[in-house]
Amino acid sequence: MKSTDLYPYRNIFINYCRKIQNLSVASVNMINQILINFWKYYSVNSSHDPNINNVNSSDIRDYLIQLDQHEHLNKKTINKYLSYLKKYFIFLTENHLISNYPLYNVKGISYQRKETIIINWMPYINNFLGKDLHPETIKLLILVSQGYDLDQLLNVRWDDINSKLSNTLKRYLINNLDFTKTSNPYIYQGKRIDKYTSLDRVTSVVKKDQKSIVLPVTPRKLRQSYILSIVSNPNFSDNQLLKILRISKKSLSYYKFCVSYYNLIPYKEYIE
To answer: Which residues 6+ apart lie within 8 Å of 125 measured at CB?
Structure first.
């Protein structure tokens, strides 16, 4: 993306709106401003470097929730925002500028307004060991519970975490890692290479375990529930939260909003 652009492919998209769709100046200006606002929101709240190919339906839903609860826009206005986002992403998809259209499951104001998120699951990972889950799933639970962000997961090695784990979890990892070539393997160790090179590989495996576990086991959702577990703890000050989570003040403000918006249920209460 060029530094002069305020969101990816802005110039060619606006040109399309003006010259191909013949939209009015007012409509083009409104679309442009909405996309600027969305991209600012996504850039601040994305776990990775902002990339238009990584935008998914959850990102769109979170943005709509923010419009509803934080900016207090009415349903009609939110649906208008959504229609313009759809126009933009359809344009990108049809012109092969992105690989996947991210709004298939987002339909107007019908997005889930009070999603339930299970929190405080971190002390109970031992409960999942007897469920015949893939090692990738247990490893994901362990790493996220230790506070690692998504862009760090594939780089964590045995020496980084073994002193922080219970004997039960240590034993599990020892039984699911190969120490023959190195005493300090990556947790997401590859069979022919040192480590996994893409988090997509982890995601594709852990999704197979979703029916066997009450938590949503995608990396992004697990990271979200971990953060909300910490932010919802009244014993932490803002400075402590910033230090623990290693996030910006803007992100902390957003997650505090999420704590007040979502229906948070501790794991222990959920299973009882």
So the answer is: 138, 141, 142, 145, 169
